[in-house]
Design brief:
single chain, alpha/beta, 2-enoyl-CoA Hydratase, Chain A, domain 1, Lyase 2-enoyl-coa Hydratase, Chain  A, domain 2, 47% helix, globular, mitochondrion, transit peptide, Mitochondrial_ECH-domain
Length: 290
């Protein structure tokens, strides 16, 4: 048992270190790939050789793909996936060595925080499709998404403590997704959660067999695409706004938003379609009903 745990810790540390011995030459392939069909944009982390580490260029590429034509009515859902056996190993530790100055280190962490918060500010739901290991800032990325679907083989960890770099920024997302004591155990020990443990504690939404991961992710995406983009955007923004408030304030915020929702063209269209027993025809517009 001890040997097995030692081997597992070794794999986690290797993933977190993200090819620390490799040079910094940019890969031939783009760091992220973006494709879109039927309202669903899939962004693929595409640097498996470096375990999809969130290097500064990777974060910049991910931000570009998230923001690309984000107000288009054709965009309804974003899915973040990855190539290779590691979903994302976290920061590239080569960028955090003493060879780089504090200014560069700050740039890395500030851009990472910007991307993580951007995900929750986008007007469409963002789904993490996880098939493998997600460590440190990679685990933070999963926790920052609105929905996360994972294969049974996936694992989640914040092993920074094992190399002397406590996962303080990942702790922000973990502490808002997991019970405090579960998050702190992950942060203090670096030990991983299995996919089923992550589901039980609320880090992810669903666990499916690996061969069903694409099907289940698309099923959720297509269901979201059936709703009004404007209504979903209002609902998502309100959810994150109220969740940090006390109960009375949260109800004041959401009561006003419910009234605002009724003024939207799609708010009235949905009610009229229900009364008339027909399928709604969404405008996906923020315009008010006249």
């Amino acid at each position: 048992m001890a040997a097995r745990l030692w081997r597992l810790r070794g794999r986690l540390t290797a993933a977190f270190s993200s090819a620390a011995g490799a040079g910094r030459a940019p890969p031939a392939e783009p760091l992220t790939e973006r494709r879109q069909a039927g309202g669903v944009r899939t962004i693929v982390l595409n640097n498996p050789r470096r375990r999809n580490a969130l290097s500064l260029p990777m974060l910049q590429s991910l931000r570009r793909d998230l923001l690309h034509d984000v107000k288009s009515r054709e965009l309804r859902v974003i899915v973040i996936a990855a190539e290779g056996p590691v979903f994302c190993s976290g920061h590239d530790l080569k960028e955090l060595s003493s060879e780089d100055d504090v200014k560069h280190h700050s740039q890395v962490f500030e851009l990472c925080a910007e991307v993580m918060t951007l995900i929750q500010k986008l007007p469409v739901p963002v789904i993490a499709k996880v098939n493998g290991l997600a460590t440190a800032a990679g685990c933070q990325l999963v926790a920052s998404c609105d929905i996360a679907v994972a294969s049974e083989k996936s694992q989640f960890a914040t092993p920074g403590v094992n190399i002397g770099l406590f996962c303080s920024t990942p702790a922000v997302a973990l502490g808002r997704s997991l019970p405090r004591k579960v998050a702190l155990e992950m942060l203090f020990t670096g030990e991983p959660l299995s996919a089923h443990e992550a589901l039980m504690h609320g880090l992810i939404s669903k666990v499916v067999p690996e061969d069903k991961l694409e099907e289940e992710t698309m099923k959720i995406s297509q269901k979201i695409c059936e709703s009004s983009k404007s209504v979903l955007a209002l609902g998502k923004a309100t959810f994150y706004r109220q969740i940090t408030q006390d109960l009375d304030t949260a109800y004041k915020i959401t009561t006003k938003v419910m009234v605002d929702n009724l003024t939207l063209r799609d708010g009235q269209e949905g009610i009229e379609a229900f009364v008339q027993k027909r399928k709604p025809v969404w405008s996906h517009s923020q315009e008010e009903k006249k």
